[in-house]
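hiii, so i know i said id send this last week but things got crazy w the move. better late than never?? heres the sequnce for the chain we talked about at the cafe, plus the structure i predicted for it. fair warning i was half asleep when i ran it
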Amino acid sequence: MSALFRDWLPGVLNGQQLDALYRDGAILGSKPGEFGKSSMDLTLSREAWRLPLGSVKPSKEIFSNQLRHNAVFFEALPPDKQGWFVLKPKQTYVFKLQQTLNQKAMFEWNVYGQSTAKSSIGRMDVLVRLIVDGMDCYESFRPTEMASTGDMYVEATPLTFPVIVKEGTPITQLRLFYGAPEECEFDGREVHRATVATSGNEPDGYLRVDLSNASVGKSEGCAFQAQVSSKHAPVPLWSTPEKKRPKPGEYWGLHKAAVTESGLRYLPIEKESFYILRSKEHLALDGSVAVYCMAIDETIGEMRIHYAGFVHPWFGRDRDDRIGTPLIFEVRGHDVRVVLQDGEKLAKLRYFRMSQPVTKGDPEQYNKQTLKLSNFFGPWK
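okay and structure toks below
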C-alpha cells in the first residue's frame, strides 16, 4: 500500500489528500490545487451525445461500447461554431468527462466515490447523474465493480430552461472516500446539537421546509417558482459578469405562502412546476465533518424532493448572525396539485467523518444564503 495512507483514517478525502492522489496517478484530467474541501469538480469534454429516446440506464457494460453500438439510443452531438452546446428542456444528453480514475489504484487503496450535481446546476432544474464505467447505477462507484477504463460520463436533462455548456464546464462533483462510505458515517443527538440551529424543536437530523417570508432584494417571499416560456434565452452554466447574467424576474416568480384561519402557512405546488425553497434548520460545520443531504423520500405525495450538492466542511461558519446557513430544497410537482405545509420534513442529514480535518480557507459561495437562486442569474431586484 502507498505511504500516502499510513496516517489517513477512513473518511471523506479533503483537497490536500485529493492532490496527493493526483500526484500519485490515481486521478487523471484534473490539476493540482483545483480540488475542493471535500470533493472534486468533474468537467465536460467535447464528446457529447443526444439521447432521442430518453435516458438509458447504465449497465456493467463499458459505456463507450453502448455509445458505439446502439446508435438508436445515442446521436453524436457536435458543438456549435463557438464550441458551445445548447441543451433543450426535456431532452437528455450524455457527455464524456475530462477526468478519469485509475481503477487499479482505487481498488488497491480501497477508494469509493459518491457524486451529486453542483448546487448551482440543481437550482437550474437540470437533472445531472454521473455514470462510471462498469457500474450499473448512477452517482457512485465501488472499487471492486468499476471497469478498468476508469472513464466517467455525465447524463444531463434540463427540465425547465434551455441552458448552454462548453468544454470544461463543471456540472457535477465527486466525493472520494477512503473506505466504504457507510463505514465513515456517524450520527447522534450530540452531533445534531453541534451542527444544527433551529427555533423550537430539538435538532434531530431532519430538515423541514420554512414557509415564512425571507428578504430577497427589495421583495419578500418563501419560494421561487420557475416560469416556463418558449421565449427564454438559454442560460450559460458558467460564471459571467453580473451585468451580463439573465434577469431572474424573467425566469422566476417569487411567492408568499397562504395562511389558514388557524395560522398554518402552506404553499400549493402546481403540477410540472419547479420550486426553490429553504430549510428551517440552519447548518454550521467545522473542519472534521462533511454532510450529504438526502430526501427522506424523493417522491413525497405528488412532489419530487431533491437537494443538489454536498455540504462541505466549514459551511455556515462565516455568517454575521452566527446561526448557520439554511439549506436549499428543489421541489418539482408531478401530475396533480399538492399542498406543502410549513414545517414538513423533506430531507435527512447524513454525516461523514473527514479522513483528515480541513483548514477553513475561503467561504463557500452560498455560505450566507437565505432563499437563493443559482448564481448564474443576476441579483433579484
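btw The first helix runs from residue 15 to 23. thought thatd interest u
miss u guys!!
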